[in-house]
Amino acid sequence: MTEFRADISQYYALKQALEEIFGKDAWYELKECTSLSKWKKHLSKLLAAIRISIHETVRLADAEWFEEADALIERSNSAIKGAKSADELFSTLSAYLIRIVFHQIGFRPMRITMKKVTLAKDYWRLDLYRSVQYVQTLEQIRAAEQHRKRKLEGAEQRSNLD
Hints:
There is one protein chain. By secondary structure, the chain is mainly alpha-helical. It folds into two domains: 12-131, no CATH class; 136-162. It is built from seven helices and no strands. The N and C termini lie far apart (43 Å).
């Protein structure tokens, strides 16, 4: 069983992702954190942010889809609260985020009775009940273009420093 260490490199990718979402305070609290309860707090906050983001961002979906998303997030929160170790905590988070991702795509595969599932396209078209469509308003197109320009300018500035 993996235990938490006061080591900045332990779980670095997750610490960095949480910083990207919640800012520097999250990084500082987790960078050498050995507290299971602090990790649970941040991961519960992550799940709450996902739930809020779903409800604030998804504009067209049936009520059942939202209910299923909420139920998945609630079950993941309960499982995280019950985790007794770092391994259990991160395994639980990973398992539920996988489920949430497939739910977001449109359909969560349940193939536990199948012996083998390949990566053939027929297995992975997940629009049996609903399909996902990303659309942009004119305002969003302009905002995305501005974002691309700022990113490109930043990359050019960094390359000029080399």
